[in-house]
């Protein structure tokens, strides 16, 4: 049975891909990037981050480029970029849909 | 190790399966409040270092295996530990597929911040193959014993399979069954919990759980000890369960002399290749085997003519299974199991059993006329086949003859 591909990215996954888009990073750098980028709103537990990295590697969204002792450095692949841009487009559509629903936005305001 | 060093440590039995995250974490955190900090867990025993009481958070997570890829070493476990240590978690030890991490800092982020991903993580690394292995082992044991257990009962199977060997396999089967249930239940329960609600990390009452878990573990250890111990004892005693030659046949000979077979003067040579000539000159198949619950067991198979109670001489083939058991109740139990077994045969029909003056007697026809008799610790099963039509289905006359042989 083929492995089930990622159907959608969670918020954490999205930010991890965003981190790699800026260049190759190790797991600790990714965690710091996500925390800074979201102002501490999205914090990644180390086991959660490891799970995401392992999943992305098996899906070939990222690839390992360097192993330094216990530290592994990854970079994003074309497939990973495609997934990232796909998610950005999906989120933009969501925002556009929300904007088009003026009534709902007015209520919020 | 110096005494001072030893005194710094204390040991405790683990109270639950490693799959029970919440109980394990609660137990470790309670002990930390008593001043015991986990150092290691090995073979169900946890080693603690004594130090000042403190509020510690313990967390368990699946540890990925270090593995060799086609080209390189994939440091899965060490990378996870590296990430955890960078986040403020200290790796303590690994038990099975799970790692135990600890932190004293209350501000440190949880190991898992997304329950959905924790579920995915667990699903990916749990060793489902080992569960299949346990299932296969259990089914193998069932297959080995299925026919015996279904056909007969516990004691008859025991008597036929050999005491120590049977006990061992039975103990292993029971132990394996418990292990199988545990091996299946624990991962599945954790899987469902992670999928549905995630780990709460709230304090759980672990004491009652610990009592039950430890009782099961001790029972399992005893079970395996009895099983393997009995094999070792039998090896040490030099028992050979299938050595027919060394069996002292004096008691058996005495019984045979009381059988109607003794009146046979025209006994035919047995067709069986392992036929052993009897001391009294007749020829019959005699098999004796040493058994724990039925130390005297023999099967006699004789064909010839002999005299029954009404004075008639009848040509007959007779198969006699004779047991002397350790205790009279075992003899009765064996007879009752055999009777129940034969009652299930499609050609079974009951016969009138006369009053014979023995403790247990039942006569029936299960393809062959069959008589089961028990007196004290002696149990005899007799099956007859005769060419004499008049006696073919008449069990009653034979009952008197064989009941006498037991007295």
Number of strands of chain A: 3
First-to-last CA distance of chain A: 49 Å
Spans of chain A of 5+ residues with little confidence (pLDDT < 50)? none
- Approximate strand percentage of chain A: 5-15%
**Spatial order of the strands in the main sheet of chain B?**
9-10-11-12-16-15-14-13
Number of domains of chain A: 1
What does this structure look like?
The complex is a heterodimer of chains A (109) and B (407). Chain A has five helices and three strands; from the N terminus they run αβααββαα. Helices cover 60% and strands 14% of the residues of chain A. Chain A has one domain: Winged helix-like DNA-binding domain superfamily/Winged helix DNA-binding domain (Arc Repressor Mutant, subunit A), CATH 1.10.10. The model of chain B is unreliable at 240-248 and 269-288 (pLDDT under 50). The longest helix of chain B has 34 residues, at 163-196. Chain B has three domains: 3-109, no CATH class; 128-236; 250-405, 3-Layer(aba) Sandwich (Protein Transport Mog1p, Chain A), CATH 3.40.1000. With 407 residues, chain B is α+β, with helices and mostly antiparallel strands. Chains A and B meet through helix 2 and helix 3 of A and helix 3 and helix 4 of B.
């Amino acid at each position: 049975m083929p492995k089930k591909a990622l159907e959608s990215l969670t918020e954490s996954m999205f930010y991890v891909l965003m981190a790699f888009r800026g260049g190759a990073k190790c797991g600790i750098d990714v965690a710091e990037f996500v925390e800074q980028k979201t102002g501490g709103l999205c914090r990644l537990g180390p086991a959660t981050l490891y799970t995401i990295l392992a999943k992305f590697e098996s899906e070939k969204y990222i690839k390992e480029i360097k192993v330094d002792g216990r530290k592994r450095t990854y970079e994003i692949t074309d497939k990973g970029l495609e997934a990232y841009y796909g998610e950005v487009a999906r989120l933009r559509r969501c925002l556009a849909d929300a904007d088009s629903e003026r009534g709902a936005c007015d209520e919020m305001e | 190790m110096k005494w001072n060093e030893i005194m710094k440590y204390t040991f405790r039995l683990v109270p639950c399966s490693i799959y029970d995250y919440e109980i394990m974490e609660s137990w470790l955190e309670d002990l930390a409040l008593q001043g015991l900090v986990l150092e290691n867990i090995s073979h169900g025993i946890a080693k603690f270092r004594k130090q000042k009481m403190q509020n510690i958070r313990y967390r368990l997570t699946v540890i990925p295996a270090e593995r060799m890829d086609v080209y390189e070493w994939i440091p899965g476990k060490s990378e996870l530990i590296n990430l955890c240590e960078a986040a403020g978690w200290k790796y303590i030890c690994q038990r099975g597929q799970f790692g135990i991490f600890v932190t004293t800092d209350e501000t440190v982020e949880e190991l898992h911040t997304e329950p959905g991903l924790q579920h995915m993580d667990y699903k990916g690394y749990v060793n489902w193959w080992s569960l299949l292995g346990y299932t296969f082992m259990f089914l193998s044991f069932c297959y080995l014993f299925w026919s015996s257990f279904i056909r007969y009962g516990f004691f008859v199977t025991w008597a036929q399979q050999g005491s120590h060997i049977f006990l061992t396999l039975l103990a292993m089967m029971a132990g394996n069954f418990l292990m199988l249930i545990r091996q299946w239940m624990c991962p599945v329960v954790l899987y469902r919990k992670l999928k549905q609600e995630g780990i709460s990390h709230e304090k759980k009452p672990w004491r009652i759980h610990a009592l039950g878990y430890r009782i099961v573990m001790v029972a399992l250890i005893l079970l395996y000890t009895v099983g393997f111990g009995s094999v070792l004892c039998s090896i040490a005693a030099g028992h050979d369960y299938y050595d027919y030659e060394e069996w002292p046949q004096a008691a058996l000979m005495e019984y045979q002399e009381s059988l109607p077979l003794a009146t046979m003067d025209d006994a035919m040579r047995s067709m069986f290749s392992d036929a052993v000539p009897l001391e009294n000159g007749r020829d019959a198949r005699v098999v004796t085997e040493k058994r724990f619950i039925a130390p005297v067991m023999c099967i006699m198979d004789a064909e010839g003519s002999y005299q029954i109670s009404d004075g008639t001489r009848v040509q007959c083939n007779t198969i006699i299974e004779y047991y002397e058991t350790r205790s009279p109740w075992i003899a009765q139990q064996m007879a009752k199991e055999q009777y129940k077994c034969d009652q299930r045969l499609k050609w079974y029909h009951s016969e009138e059993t006369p009053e014979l003056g023995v403790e247990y007697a039942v006569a029936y026809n299960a393809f062959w006329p069959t008589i089961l008799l028990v007196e004290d610790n002696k149990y005899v099963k007799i099956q007859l086949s005769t060419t004499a039509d008049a006696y073919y289905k008449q069990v009653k006359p034979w009952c008197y003859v064989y009941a006498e042989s037991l007295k």
